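Case study B.
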Amino acid sequence: MSLLTIDRNPIGLSLPRFQLSHARWLSPVLLLLLWELGSRTGVIPPRILAAPSTVLVTLWEMTVSGELPRNLVVSLARASAGLAIGLIVGTTLALVSGLSRIGETAVDPLMQIKRTIPSLALTPLFIVWFGIGETPKITLIAVGTTFPIYLNLFSGVRGVDARLIEAARSFGLKGLDLIVHVILPGALPSFLVGLRYAMGVALLVLVVAEQINAQAGLGYLINNARDFMRTDVIVVCLIVYAALGLTADQIVRTLETRALAWRPSFIKS
Amino acid sequence: MSHPLQVALPVAAQPAVRVRNFTRRFGQTTVLHDLDLDIGRGEFVALLGRSGSGKTTLLRTLAGLDPADGQAVTTPAAKAIVFQDPRLLPWKKVWRNVALGLSGPGVRDRAEAALGEVQLGHRLDAWPATLSGGEAQRVALARALVREPGLLLLDEPFAALDALTRIRMHGLVLALWRTHNPAVLLVTHDVDEAITLADRVLVLDEGRIAAEERIDLPRPRDPDAAFHAIRTRLLGHLGVEAPARRPAPTEGALVAFPSGEMVA
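Model:
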């Protein structure tokens, strides 16, 4: 097998492949240049889409004036609060359901019913119930993030190798010890998959929830910018959303390398 | 002055394991049938049998993993199992796996000492995923012995190892058995392994002890004529024709030894 692999990658071919991977930057940069060129020549009017250079300047101005950081903090607080509630509720329900048959019978059907309703479809109902303040926004995020946490942790708990549980039992572990030392660490990889997914959902729901009559936050900035046709501000907010998504992903990656250091894939790297 | 034999008798009368008229059914199938078994303190017993003969069921019952259903099964309080696969918790470092379920002061020292006994004192803080198959099984052995069991249950612990590692493990198990002197029940389907290690070999067939062979050969045991005579008898009990031409002793040591079931 190893011989075959070497044959497929003769040294002569590795150089062009190296350059090709660098060329992946080429098309996005080319697109940016075309965009800038289109804006400068007037092909793309600013009311349709602001030039990349204008967006950069706006980003700088909004940062310096404190407008962007202030609203970013508001949005982050919303997302974190919703995610925290979703985490607590999802984890609790998954443990109740995963660790006991009675719990599964009681909890799982409700969660499966909830799964069939897209969280965002609850928006009108939440506005009727909670008005247009912070509550419906945070509740929407909490509801949306509960399910990925629940589903992944539940399957993680149920998926722990029965042979390991049996071995631990034979060495006298039971009850809480068994849960803490065997079941929870065994379910951790699945939980982290759920967490990563939940962070993505939190961001997605945040974008929609912030369109509900927000007085502050990134959604408020976008709504305002739309009214004044400030496409540069809209694009700045989109960039910030993207950065938030990347950051969330990086946080989970860091958590994984720390918490799953025992995994063969992490040991090798 | 009393006769030495009379002094020895009361001790022998209190075996580590005592099973009487034990029957175990799964649905319509009777796996163990009216079984009697005694294992003396510090005695090394090997249990041979074909697949489905009930040997793993018997081991699991003695381990307390399967319920005895109120039948007459007496075992020591301290028991430990080494499974066919090491079953180490991958998220705990090697010494924590050994210390699993232990409490009180000096747990790490105890784990360290046990790992030293299996020549793994240098891998205390390694992740189980980085161990070789033989190393992982040695950790499992240390995890069992650190509990100072009165009964050590070995469920085909060498079956997944390569032939050379297996020979080394045989020596290690014998050395540890001499040091700690637990009663041992080794479940295996390797006739040569059973004869090499045990004081007594039992053949389990259709839920009954079909044959018993006491091995009085001095250890370490070479596959000599006496060894082969026992081997032929045991294979006969297992329903296997012994090979017509016996392999030469040196050949037998390398070929027949690690894979008795293949040669048979």
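The longest helix of chain A spans residues 175-209. The remaining cases will be described in the next quarterly update.
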